Every structure is written in structure tokens, then in C-alpha cells.
Q: What sequence folds into this?
């Protein structure tokens, strides 16, 4: 006895490939947006901003394919988890592309203002870490690697630390008169954009774990009728199911 | 009707923690059940708890023994020469296979609805409903019969459709109506449990939904066990689902996993169940 719904399962694999491809695109977008910010490259910024329409269109197309599969194929168990997760992952990836666009828009707003080496260093680090996170999220999704997805939370903690550092450096630069208030505010928002990209990568990782074995952060595993009843002092307080 | 019943119900309530009364009547406890056709072991080692007044669905590939198992719950499989079981099926504290238990009395309290609607073709709708009663017990007064027919047909959601033609033959009804007539006939004998063996597989989608709605109403009063090939049906109507499978031709069927229906169709514990419900294995 073997695979009975290979057509449907091929469709699921194609949807995942499509999303992973989009996610790989965002993985490349993050370092480019970082570089654009550091270089004040307005032309490249414009290019990224205009290119976002493609991500939006792609995400709508993939989402519609998920809806169609749910409507026509009555997916259950791992198939259902994979489709429901796909819809959520699409949103995370699409939003991350938007955040890269936002970083490029910030580059336009601070154009002409010199950034001191401390600021440049921490921006570079945030960009690098956000890139690593997104790359990791993309690969764990492509390979449905649950254990590896679990590591994303720790990687994100480092990005959160960098955000705090960045804010500190912004204060110091502003106090030293290296950047004016308008630039300081823009950079603080950029710090937030990088941090959010990390959060979306973590979300993708959580969804991968859900696809693999049903784990969700809010309640680790679905309840089973076969769980032993919860007992307090020899009295059943809640039965397993 | 009650005088010949061998499986009396114990006290209706049992006090669980917190003083909440839990009615455990008419649940079924199956322990280590092996089912044989002569020397062929068809189903091996099934243990399961069937909750009262709820719907339990049994799913699995063809030949996995789920229908055989269902029939063993009212000793219907014994109509085949040489069929027997080892293990126990206990309802209300009585083992259906205990010594001296009359299989006919068992079948009176544990009714069965089959795949193809099988009303008695020449009998009127009225007589179809009370057929089981007529076979089982002494004659009833006309008024009593009328009450029983109305109550049973209402219980099967068929009353409004047939109340003006109760004297017409049951075979004149549509497939879905005939199946509901069979359900009315089954509940007319006041069973504790209703077994349904693919009750919708010969019906169109609308009649299927009508039967499913009916099942959801019936579960308030009856313990229902349904065998279905339609996994979506199991998902739609049942509270718990048991997955049966078979290791290969000539091997006995086994219960692989049993859990809440939600769990079976969202995140089953066994890979074999997952493969079956997602169609990665037939």
C-alpha cells in the first residue's frame, strides 16, 4: 500500500517551495536593505521599494492556492497543519519584505546625514543577525526541521540585545552631537524594523514545529483522550480528554 | 418489552469528583477481544471504551475488521457458522458473551442499522416501524402501536414526511427515507445502543447530511457506534474515533489508535493513523 493522494501532496510541496522561495528572497533583501541604509544608496532603495509589489502579488497567489486546497481537498492532520501554517508563514514573510522596504524608506529620510562608526557597526550587526535568522527560518521550513526551528528563539534573543545596544548608541551619538534628533528618531525606528524581522523569523520557526508535530507555544501539544487523568489527593480533577 | 432483557442497567448515576453526577449507563467496555471465524483470527486484541450517549466512529482500510468488530458488539457476527470471540464486551456491568446470555436479547438492546436500507418491502411504513416489536413481544393495543410509531418516526426525523401515508409500503420511500425508516424501526424497540454499519454509503449527499443530523440528535439518548468509509463523516459527527488497520492479507485486524476525533484528525499520535487519514497509505 502506498501514496494515494500524490497529486494533492505534490500541490502541498509546490506551495511550500513557493513560500520558501519568497522567504529566500527576503533573506537576500535584509542585507541589501542594510547596505542601502549604510551607503545612502537612493537608487537601490527605490528599486527595493518598487519591487515590493512582486512580494505582495506572490503572497496573494500562494494564499489563494492554500484556500483552494482547503476548500477542495478536505485536508486533515499533517496536511491541514501544513496548509494552515502556510497561510501564516506567507503573512510573516510578506510583512518582513515590507519591513525591508521601510528600512529603505528610512534610508531616504536620513540621506545626507553622516553616521558615526559606532552606529554603523551596530546597524551592520543587526542586519547580519536578522539575515541569519531569516535564512535559518527559511531552511527549517524548506526541510521541515523541527529541532532546528526550536533554536530560532535563542538567536532572536541576541537580535533583541542588539536592538537595546543600538538604542543606547543612538542616545550617545545624539548626546555627542553627531546626529540630530530627526535622524535619531529614524534610526530608533529602524532598530525596531530589524527586531521585528527577527520576530517574524521566530514565528516561521514556531509554525514549522507545529507542522512537524503539532507544537504551539501557547499549549505545547493537543490534548489526548489517552492522557492520564489529573489527580489531586487521589481525586480526579480533570480527565485527560 | 422489558421482561426478556438480560442486560439490566445498574444505578443511573455514579458520583465523580466534585459531586457532579456522571451517567455511565450504556457505555461499553471492550477488553482484549479476539474475533474468530472458525480458526481464522479476523480481529485481534481490541480493548476500547465506548462512551455512553456519544458517537464513536470506526475507520480503517477495507478488510481491517472494523465491521466485524461492530457486529461483535451485538453478537450479529455469530449468524455466520463457526464465528466466536475471546475476551469480553461489557455493558452496564454485564458481559454480552457471558454464559447463558441470549444473543437475541442482546440484539434487542443493541440495535443495528445496515449499509443498504432494508425495510420489509411489502410491509407498510407503519408495520415496518413496529416489526421489531411484533417479533419481540406480545401484542400491543392499536393506540399503543400508534404512539410508538409516531414517537419512533419523529425520533428518526421522518414523521412529517410520511405521516399521511403510513399504510403505504416502505419500499416506496426514497433511499434516505428508507434508511431513516430503518433507524425508526431500530429505535422502536428502545435499544440502549445503536450500531451503524456504513449507514450512508448507499445514500446521496443530501440524505447523508440528513442522517448525520439525525445521528447528532440521537446521541442525546443513545450510545452510537458507526463504521464509515467516509472519513469526513467520521470527522463531522463523531466524538471519538478508532482507527483499525491490518498488517497484511491473512493477518488479523488491530485497533491502532483511539482518541478524540479532533485529535485523530488534527494530530494523531501514531504515524500509521496519520498516513491513513492523509491518504499516504491505503
A:
Amino acid at each position: 500500500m502506498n501514496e494515494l493522494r500524490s497529486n494533492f501532496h505534490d500541490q502541498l510541496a509546490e506551495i511550500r517551495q513557493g513560500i520558501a522561495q519568497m522567504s529566500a528572497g527576503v533573506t537576500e533583501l535584509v542585507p541589501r536593505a542594510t547596505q542601502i541604509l549604510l551607503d545612502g544608496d537612493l537608487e537601490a532603495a527605490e528599486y527595493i521599494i518598487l519591487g515590493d509589489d512582486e512580494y505582495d502579488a506572490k503572497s496573494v497567489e500562494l494564499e489563494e492556492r492554500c484556500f483552494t486546497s482547503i476548500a477542495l481537498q478536505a485536508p486533515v492532520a499533517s496536511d491541514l497543519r501544513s496548509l494552515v501554517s502556510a497561510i501564516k508563514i506567507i503573512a510573516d514573510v510578506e510583512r518582513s519584505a515590507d519591513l525591508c522596504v521601510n528600512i529603505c524608506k528610512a534610508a531616504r529620510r536620513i540621506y545626507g546625514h553622516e553616521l558615526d562608526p559606532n552606529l554603523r557597526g551596530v546597524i551592520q550587526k543587526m542586519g547580519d543577525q536578522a539575515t541569519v535568522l531569516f535564512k535559518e527560518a527559511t531552511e527549517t521550513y524548506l526541510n521541515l526541521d523541527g529541532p532546528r526551528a526550536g533554536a530560532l528563539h535563542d538567536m532572536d534573543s541576541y537580535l533583541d540585545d542588539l536592538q537595546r545596544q543600538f538604542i543606547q548608541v543612538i542616545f550617545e551619538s545624539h548626546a555627542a552631537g553627531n546626529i540630530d534628533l530627526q535622524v535619531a528618531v529614524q534610526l530608533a525606528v529602524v532598530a525596531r524594523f530589524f527586531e521585528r524581522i527577527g520576530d517574524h523569523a521566530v514565528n516561521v520557526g514556531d509554525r514549522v514545529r507545529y507542522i512537524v508535530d503539532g507544537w504551539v507555544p501557547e499549549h505545547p501539544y493537543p490534548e489526548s483522550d489517552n492522557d492520564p487523568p489529573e489527580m489531586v489527593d487521589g481525586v480526579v480533577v480533570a480527565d485527560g480528554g | 418489552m422489558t421482561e426478556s432483557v438480560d442486560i439490566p442497567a445498574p444505578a443511573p448515576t455514579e458520583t465523580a469528583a466534585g459531586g457532579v453526577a456522571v451517567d455511565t449507563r450504556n457505555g461499553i467496555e471492550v477488553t482484549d477481544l479476539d474475533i474468530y471465524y472458525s480458526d481464522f483470527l479476523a480481529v485481534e486484541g481490541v480493548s476500547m471504551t465506548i462512551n455512553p450517549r456519544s458517537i464513536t466512529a470506526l475507520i480503517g482500510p477495507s478488510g481491517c475488521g472494523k465491521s466485524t468488530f461492530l457486529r461483535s458488539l451485538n453478537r450479529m457476527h455469530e449468524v455466520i457458522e463457526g464465528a466466536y470471540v475471546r475476551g469480553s464486551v461489557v455493558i452496564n456491568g454485564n458481559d454480552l458473551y457471558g454464559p447463558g446470555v441470549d444473543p437475541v436479547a442482546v440484539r434487542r438492546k443493541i440495535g443495528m442499522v445496515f449499509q443498504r436500507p432494508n425495510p420489509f418491502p411489502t410491509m407498510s411504513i407503519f408495520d415496518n416501524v413496529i416489526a421489531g416489536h411484533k417479533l419481540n413481544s406480545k401484542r400491543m393495543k392499536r393506540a399503543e402501536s400508534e404512539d410508538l410509531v409516531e414517537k419512533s418516526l419523529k425520533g428518526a426525523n421522518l414523521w412529517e414526511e410520511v405521516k399521511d401515508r403510513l399504510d403505504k409500503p416502505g419500499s416506496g420511500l426514497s433511499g434516505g427515507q428508507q434508511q431513516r425508516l430503518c433507524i425508526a424501526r431500530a429505535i422502536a424497540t428502545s435499544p440502549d445502543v445503536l450500531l451503524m454499519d456504513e449507514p450512508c454509503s448507499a445514500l446521496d449527499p443530501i440524505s447523508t447530511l440528513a442522517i448525520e443530523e439525525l445521528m447528532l440528535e440521537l446521541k442525546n439518548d443513545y450510545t452510537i457506534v458507526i463504521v464509515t468509509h467516509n472519513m469526513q463523516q467520521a470527522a463531522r459527527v463523531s466524538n471519538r474515533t478508532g482507527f483499525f488497520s491490518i498488517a497484511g492479507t491473512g493477518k488479523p485486524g488491530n485497533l491502532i489508535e483511539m482518541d478524540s476525533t479532533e485529535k485523530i484528525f488534527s494530530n494523531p499520535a501514531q504515524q500509521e493513523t496519520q498516513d491513513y487519514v492523509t491518504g499516504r497509505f491505503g
